[in-house]
From TrEMBL:
Record's protein name: Assimilatory nitrate reductase catalytic subunit
Organism: Phytomonospora endophytica
Keyword Disulfide bond: no
Entry keyword set: 4Fe-4S, Iron, Iron-sulfur, Metal-binding, Oxidoreductase
InterPro entries for this protein: Asp_de-COase-like_dom_sf (IPR009010), MoPterin_dinucl-bd_dom (IPR006657), Mopterin_OxRdtase (IPR006656), Mopterin_OxRdtase_4Fe-4S_dom (IPR006963), Prok_molybdopt-oxidoreductase (IPR050123)
Enzyme Commission numbers on file: 1.7.99.4
UniProt-listed SMART domains: Molybdop_Fe4S4 (SM00926)
Any GO BP: respiratory electron transport chain
Record-level Gene Ontology MF annotations: 4 iron, 4 sulfur cluster binding; metal ion binding; molybdopterin cofactor binding; NADH dehydrogenase activity
Keyword Iron-sulfur set for record: yes
Record-linked CDD domains: MopB_CT_Fdh-Nap-like
Length: 683
């Protein structure tokens, strides 16, 4: 029997899989594709378990007398439109906001941005990818003039002699990616930077364990070691970059022995890492959320890019810098207009030419398009406050679990006049809503996703959704028409929306103009930019030149600054958070799948636990300035004694984001998920 060729619903690797009928449902079968070569992690293998799950939403819900009850689509949509109108008349268009998601297809992300700016007329739209990729995106844009997570195919990694993973735990988050690093692991060139000994660090020849929030000092020390040991690629610096002298003026003050007491990384290990990278024929530096989710996240990434540029890696065939994207459409999700400051094609919303182009595609006057809105946390934190939005539409996100200082976010949501959530299960955010709209799952729809390599992939429908659910494109069209928009402005067919997206992106940095469904159906998986039909796509955009007008990459003069809050006698430890193998993001999907059973925990060094009077398996409280997490202790001698770790997938008392700090990076507006001061005590 022919399998329907599609891709996994979860992370940014977007592993290929096939779906075949199995009794009354669907079964996942292996499918060969360069990123995963037929393998999947346990999340991918079990993905169909949610399709007919008993907790699946199959009809709209509306709140009445404090409780959610079932409703018809007519009633639910009328209630949404009535709420939007009432808020708009009283408080203006900006009083209704939209919160999107990095797991939405390109088509949905695009249509959501258009819906917000044209049908609602609001500037207030942002998405949960702000919590994921924004620091790397901002640093990548200013260094290279283009933000593409990996500016090379993952298969290139197989030829590397050295790879440094900074704050990336791929052995748990993207296990099939490990197969591309087997060669470098066997050659002894794998370096991992992580305050805990993660399963990925277990694979490394060298594990650097910096104190949380000190990665920038570490990268400055490594740049110092590279320059002072004559290991830089001076031809590359001269011919392909600008700004080295300014960056060096700061790095020259960070000799390895000065770096050591700040970061906790031995100067000898730091210099070994630099020598390994510099002596490799092919080398890569890859960053992830561990170094990006900080109030200095964009500068931290710039520190790693500076090091990579000094070693001559970006743009050199077989070498490079890249960011390992997290969410399934983390790349595409930020390209098509659901970001507060961007229009489709990765265009700036303040650029007059970009506004004119996109307005032309949408058939509206550029002057009616709103300007930039609030970033994700700022938007959530303004909800229900004087001058802030009074209504919110959430698509594909669960901020009650995933946003920092999440109890505060839940209070803001509760203060709204109208909360609408479109989701496939009753997530913790949906449970607070006035209206819940049930939507299809990945196997029930056509659409495109853009993976961490900037490769556009076709998601194919393998089965019909339950009769009571409605596709997000249709929901947006239904709402838009009720709000007075012409139906032709909001098509419901995914291919028609994608064709419009192609026109809107044409000529922009993320140019999809040449990528049609016909090519994707024929088996092509093209990397943007792909400006015309017949264009082969651009797997390695920086080989000849970078995307700045002068064709050069830019060093950025950045200096270390620590986390926004400090440890003290009352809260002497650092809390950092992350993912585990069996769960995904806020866990709304994976916590409901029996094969992915997992318990919350707090990982603690044995000495730290003993000091707090705790043993393995004891229930502990992790207390920050904002909230308290309760979870069982898991002893781990590989984590720094001054650091504890907890996964962020769980609700209730184990909710990691009860404790995390919403201090924002000034450029990317990324919250500081990865370093907050806590104390540990028996519960
Ligand atoms: Fe799915 Fe990511 Fe696992 Fe691949 S690595 S199967 S894309 S969750």
């Amino acid at each position: 029997m022919n399998a329907v060729a599609t891709h996994c619903p979860y992370c940014a690797l977007q592993c290929a899989m096939g779906l075949v009928p199995d009794g009354r449902g669907l079964k996942v079968v292996a499918r060969d594709f360069p990123v995963n070569e037929g393998s999947l992690c346990r999340k991918g293998w079990s993905a169909t378990a949610l399709l007919d799950h008993p907790e699946r939403l199959r009809t709209p819900l509306v709140r009445e007398k404090g409780r959610l009850r079932e409703a018809s689509w007519e009633e639910a949509l009328d209630r949404v439109v009535h709420g939007i109108r009432a808020i708009g008349e009283r408080h203006g268009a900006d009083a209704v906001a939209v919160f999107g998601g990095g797991g939405l297809t390109n088509e949905k992300a695009y249509q959501l941005g258009k819906f917000a700016r044209v049908a609602l007329g609001t500037a207030q739209i942002d998405y949960n990818g702000r919590f994921c990729m924004s620091s790397a995106a901002a640093a990548g844009m200013r260094a290279f003039g283009l933000d593409r997570g990996l500016p090379f195919p993952v298969t290139d990694l197989a030829g590397a002699d050295a790879v440094m993973l900074v704050g990336v735990n791929i052995a748990e988050t993207m296990p099939p990616l490990v197969r591309h690093l087997r060669g470098v692991r066997d050659r002894g060139g794998l370096i991992v930077v992580d305050p805990r000994r993660s399963p990925t660090a277990e694979l490394a020849a060298l594990h650097l364990r910096p104190r949380p929030g000190t990665d920038l000092a570490l990268s400055l020390g490594m740049l110092h070691a590279a320059v002072s040991s004559g290991l830089t690629d001076d031809d590359h610096i001269t011919s392909r970059t600008t700004g080295f002298a300014e960056a060096w003026r700061i790095a020259s003050r960070w000799w390895p022995e000065r770096t050591e007491p700040v970061t906790g990384v031995a100067a000898a290990d730091l210099t070994t890492a630099v020598a390994t990278l510099a002596s490799a024929r092919n080398a890569y530096i890859l960053t992830g959320r561990g170094t990006e989710q900080h109030s200095s996240g964009a500068d931290q990434v710039s520190g790693w890019i500076n090091l990579a540029l000094a070693l001559g890696l970006p743009g050199r065939p077989g070498s490079g810098y890249g960011c390992v994207t997290g969410q399934g459409n983390g790349q595409g999700g930020r390209e098509h207009g659901q970001k507060a400051d961007q229009l489709p094609g990765y265009r700036s919303i303040t650029d007059a030419d970009a506004r004119a182009h996109v307005a032309g595609v949408w058939g509206v006057d550029p002057d009616v398009l709103p300007g930039p809105g609030r970033s994700a946390f700022e938007l959530l934190d303004a909800l229900g406050t004087p001058g802030g939005p009074r209504g919110l539409l959430v698509f594909g996100s669960n901020p009650v679990v995933s946003a920092p200082d999440s109890a505060r976010v839940a209070r803001r949501l509760a203060a709204l006049d109208l909360l609408v959530v479109a989701d496939l299960v009753l997530s913790e955010t949906a449970a607070l809503a006035d209206v819940v709209l049930p939507v299809p799952q990945w196997a029930e729809e056509d659409g495109t996703m853009t993976n961490l390599e900037g490769r556009v992939l076709l998601r194919r429908k393998a089965t019909e959704p339950p009769p009571g659910v409605r596709d997000e494109l249709r929901i947006l069209a239904d709402l838009a028409v009720r709000l007075g928009q012409p139906p032709e402005r909001f098509p419901v067919d995914a291919e028609a929306v994608f064709d419009e997206l192609r026109r809107a992106s044409a000529g922009g940095p993320a140019d999809y103009a040449g990528i049609g469904y016909d090519r994707l159906r024929a088996g092509e998986a093209l990397h943007w930019p792909c400006p015309a039909p017949g264009h082969p796509g651009t797997p390695r955009p920086f080989t000849e030149r970078f995307a700045h007008p002068d064709g050069r990459a830019r060093f950025r003069a950045v200096d270390h600054r620590g986390p926004a809050e400090t440890t003290d006698a009352d809260r002497p430890l650092w809390l950092t958070t992350g993912r585990i193998l069996a769960q995904y993001q806020s866990g709304a999907q994976t916590r409901r799948i029996a094969e992915l059973d997992a318990e919350p925990f707090v990982e603690v060094h044995p000495d730290t636990a003993a000091h707090a009077g705790l043993a393995d398996g004891d229930v502990a409280r992790v207390v920050s300035r904002r909230g308290t997490i309760v979870a069982r202790v898991r002893l781990a001698p590989g984590i720094r004694p001054d650091t504890v770790f907890t996964p962020f997938h769980f609700p209730g008392a184990a909710r990691a984001n009860l404790a995390t700090n919403p201090a924002l990076d000034p450029l990317s507006r990324m919250p500081e998920f990865k370093a907050c001061a806590v104390r540990l005590e028996p519960a």
